[in-house]
Amino acid sequence: MTDTTYRRRLLGTSMFAGAMIAATLMAAPAMAQSAQDDDDQVDDIVVTGSRIARQDYVANSPIVTVTAEDFQATGSVNIDTLINDLPQFTPAANATSNNPSNGGQANVQLRGLGTGRTLVLMNGRRIVASNASSVVDLNVLPTSLISSIETITGGASSTYGSDAVAGVLNFLLDDDFEGVRMDFQYGETDRNDADTNSVNLTIGGKFGDDRGHAVLSFDYSHRSPIFNAARPFSAISGFSGASPLGSTIFDAQNLPTTAVVSGFITGGVNSNTFGFNNNGTLFTYQGARDYASPGGIDFEGFRTAGPLQQTDFAYNTGPLNYGVLPQNRYNAFAAASYEINPSVEVYTEFLFSQYETSNLLAATPAAGTATGFRIPSTNPFISSELRTVLNSRPNPAGTFRLDKRFSALGSRVGNEAVSVYQFTTGVRGDLEGTRDWTYDAYLSYGRVDDTTTQTGNVSRSAVQRLLDAADGGASLCAGGFNPFGQSTLSAACANYIGRKSKNTTVNDQRVFEVNLQGGVFDLPAGEVRVALGGTYREQNYDFIADASLSATALLPSFNGTTTVLTVQNDIAGFNAQNSLSGSDQVYEGYGEILIPLLRDLPFIQRLETNLGYRVSSYDSVGVVESYKADANWIVFDGLTVRGGIQRAVRAPSIGELFSPQNLNFPSIGSPTSGGAPALSADPCDIRTAYRSTSGSNLAASTNAAVRALCLTQGVPSQVIDTYTFPNQQVSGLSGGNPNLFEETADSYTVGVVLQSPFQNPWLSGFSGSVDYYNIEIANVVGTVSVTEQLRRCFNFDGASNTTYDPNNVYCQLFSRDRASGQVSNTFETNANLGALVTSGIDFQVDWTAALVDLGLPDWGSLAVNVTGTKLEEYKRQDLPGGTFTDRTGTLSNSFGLTLPEWKSLTSVNWNMGSFGLGVRWRYQGSAVNFNNRAQVIDAIDYFDLNGSWAVNDTVAIRAGINNLTDEMAPVYAPAVAANTDPSAYDVLGRRYYVGVSARF
Predict the structure, then answer these.
(1) Cβ of 611: how many Cβ atoms within 10 Å?
(2) 100 preceded by a cis bond (ω within 30 of 0)
(3) The pLDDT value given to residue 26
């Protein structure tokens, strides 16, 4: 590695995620020679976070830089794997996101601040977004052409515009590539599943007397799925009260007598949840009394002895879900440029990506007031035992509720077919007659087409007609429908109630941008340089929902007195949806200036400042402003101090603004965690830490107040002292808000960069950096999640509702079903909420040395890299002026919010001639279960091995073992999915890969 390369990476980086130095050492000789040639001729450089070109690589904001070799060391075929390994990132939607899911997209987020607050660029330019949230899908990137990836922390809106609130992720392509390169890779786990493979071909070269250059790249990758059943930690997961056996909760106003119930089920009471055995008898969910199990992991999972065993009945949906999503992906990228003269170079780029993926869920559940059914007392399939119980009600002829999982229709499957293209063309060059000014003007158009096909949905109106029919539906389809016990359906009945849907999404982006930069005059300390420019950007989004998903029907419901017909969503299964169409436009202008202040003074070798300002005019939110003021102080050789302040803005996305009110089923978690009462689920559930007096009497001091609030909200007095909620999800509405305004974020960073001044070979290869960051976002666009509504309504923090007032703002965001007391009609509409605040320390240490210089045999060289982060604070305020919720060092059932205090990535690499060996250590610190503070998830260590051999100047072979010690994901409850956070923890276990690359 040359001194020039070393200086670039040291001064431009606050942490080198992955083994940066080692990655260069382990590169094939042909590639290493190319790097040497580049370093001998240093051109002007534009570092991520600035528009000003300069001949050094100084960055005032902390930058993380990783390379293509770092990506190869992950053994993955998806680039987000490497990004999520970096300590500064909190994993979000990725290959393990089945439910919750984002359609197989790969989205990333800095600092856990949300995917919409991390701006993703390619070669410094915007990429077309893949969803209504204006978030880029990393699956569309041309993986084989990525040469390096730069990440800056903190607001960068003054440089790039909206969305750069947490920071920027910039993928730099090797569009100067020359020659032909082919690459093949295959990998699988030691359980012989989750196999992946990739094939890449890249061709590039010059033409037109070396005035032009073109590059063409093709990528194919495949990823096989695994089911949760394939791993012990997830095989028993996703408990649900909606089972294929069917169940009912009798209306509190029309309960059977306890005497009749207990005559059939010893210990049963009339307010229990009752399931239907296949033999025609009843059983209670509470205590699983008289339960006659059909057998199998889905029915027996939560009855199995172990930490997940439950006393009450719960259906095990976990093994029927994907643990890793499948994917088949094709990418193509082409770029060409031609220099007409030094003042005019024309260029163009074309990006294309097409992939297919799917998510798979357990069969459709239809339950509760939102998707459940009412059975008439005349239904011919009612058994003698159930008939006796029904006849003991005050109104024996009244309807009763049915919750049912339709396993006879098979699993729910959502297939995604995504096509993306983006075309960019522009002109750039030198402005003659100026000092060294350059210009760059380009047009870009990108479009995403996504077709989602869903199977396994159920028409509730069709099912209700079968239930209402005097013959059990036999006159409507062969055999009719028996809802009691496991149901078998004829093909005719399956077609009668089953629905297939197809949704289409089209999102396009238009960008026109002009950038100018150059020197203006000299000061004693150096040249003042300026960048100026303007941008027009337009985004259009159209989502066309299948007619069946937005259909409504007149369906029966119980209003607390009688059964009435009301207009309800007809579909159960995948969420009912309405179409969405929206657009936004923005005109922007910016300016940036680099001012050298002092140089060549005692303790001030160089001091400079970088100022930036941008004004943006949006159709949606009007005029907004952003700015920055950074400084870089080289004290002396080997010590640099840097820092800055930034004001960033984020305009609300099309989805946040215009999304219609759709029925949703957010998770509220489980009432217990590790057998102990938890601060999750429905607080009125007698098993939760809000009401349980078991064990340490967690709720003893507030039990009466909680009970009173539950009664006031609508939990019937007949069931208040036995009330349980058997599911992890509740129903409610979520949607956009056209009255939103922009978020603003104030951030600052300060840090030092060290480079060893010593000549001793043990010390000369040392470098390091430490940076502090602080980001405060105001007017945060988001929703008060149902989980937070329940927690704060019931005063979980001792401050949000100290009087247990039913008129508290959080208590007004949901209501309860009068017949059962269950939570219903939750309201999660976007609003400008309170604030998000996070701060921490990033650190990095690098050391490299040739063994012979250390007095050892001449057996090559070593490179060590440690990069990490210490989270000091992460807290959220839901309402302006309200209390903050501290999530520092916690995890929960909230997606994308696993926030351990410590994270690091360490690598040790040895290189000798054509051979290289490396070890990676991925460390994730311990975290407290936010919903059960007594449960601490231990720190976890993942170790990876990798090696390479340059067979000759043309062929190189690589291989590796990831998660060497076969660490399984930790289990906790309530969890995001599969008893863990599958985005944040390794769900595959030990795996192997081998690859070969040839370059001509």
Answers:
(1) 16
(2) yes
(3) 32
Q: Which two tokens stand for residue 988?
A: 């595959």
Which of 155 and 960 is assigned the larger pLDDT? 960
Q: What is the 3-state secondary structure (H, E, C) of 473-523?
A: CCCCCCCCCCCCCCCCCCHHHHHHHEEEEEEEEEEEEEEEEEEEEEEEEEE
- Whole-angstrom distance, CA of residue 109 vs CA of residue 116: 8
**3-state secondary structure string across 495-506:** HHHEEEEEEEEE
Kindly write down the DSSP assignment for every residue of 418-451, as one continuous string: EEEEEEEEEEEEE-TTSSS-EEEEEEEEEEEEEE
- Among 715, 723, 712, 716, smallest CA distance to 806 is for 712
CA atoms within 13 A on the CB side of 446: 30
Residue type, 75: G
pLDDT tens string 72-121:
888 899 999 999 999 999 998 899 999 888 899 999 999 999 999 999 99
pLDDT at residue 695 above 60? no
Place of tokens 């027996």: 300
Strand partners, 64: 15, 151
User: Which residues 6+ apart lie within 8 Å of 565 measured at CB?
Assistant: 554, 555, 556, 557
- Block residue for tokens 């509405």: 733
915-924 and 940-950 beta bridge pairing: antiparallel
Spatial separation of the C-alpha atoms in residues 388 and 375, rounded to whole Å:
16
The tokens describing 815, both together, are: 């209501």
How far is it, in rounded angstroms, from Cα 878 to Cα 577? 27
Strand residue runs (E) in 573-727: 580-601, 604-618, 622-636, 639-650, 662-664, 672-673, 676-677
Residue type, 672: T
For all residues of the chain together, what is the average pLDDT? 91
- In the block, tokens 């990528």 appear at 219
Cβ atoms within 10 A of the Cβ of 684, count? 27
Rounded alpha-carbon distances, angstroms, from residue 309 to 306, 312, 676:
5, 9, 12
Q: What are phi and psi of 4, to 5 degrees?
A: -65, -45
pLDDT digits (tens, 9 = 90+) for 565-585: 999 999 999 988 899 999 999
pLDDT category, 4, cuts 50, 70, 90?
A: very low
Q: How many CB atoms lie within 10 A of CB 253?
A: 18
Amino acid in position 921: W
Q: Which of 260, 252, 148, 144 is nearest to 202 (CA)?
A: 144
pLDDT bin (cut points 50, 70, 90) of residue 824 is confident
Q: How far is the C-alpha of 275 from the C-alpha of 288, rounded, in Å?
A: 9
Across residues 151-165, what is the average pLDDT? 85
Using CA atoms, how far apart are residues 119 and 134, in angstroms rounded to an integer? 9
> How far is Cα of residue 336 from the mean position of the Cα atoms in its chain?
34
Q: SS3 for 909-962, per residue?
A: EEEECCEEEEEEEEEECCEEECCCCCCEECCEEEEEEEEEEECCCCEEEEEEEE
- Cis omega (within 30 of 0) for bond into 857: no
Report pLDDT digits (tens) over 437-493.
Answer: 999 999 999 999 999 999 999 999 999 999 999 999 999 999 999 999 999 999 999
Task: Report how far Cα 780 is from the mean position of its chain's Cα atoms.
Answer: 18
Predicted confidence (pLDDT) per residue in 185-217, tens digit? 999 999 999 999 999 999 999 999 999 999 999
Q: Are 818 and 800 in contact (CB under 8 A)?
A: no
Label residue 699 by pLDDT band (50, 70, 90). Answer: low
Please tell me the distance from the alpha carbon of residue 932 to that of residue 935, in angstroms, as a whole number: 6
Angle subtended at Cα 10 by Cα 6 and Cα 12, rounded to the nearest 5 degrees: 115
Sequential DSSP letters for 871-901: EEEEEEESSTTSPEEE-TTEE-SSTT--B-S
The whole-number pLDDT of residue 495 equals 97
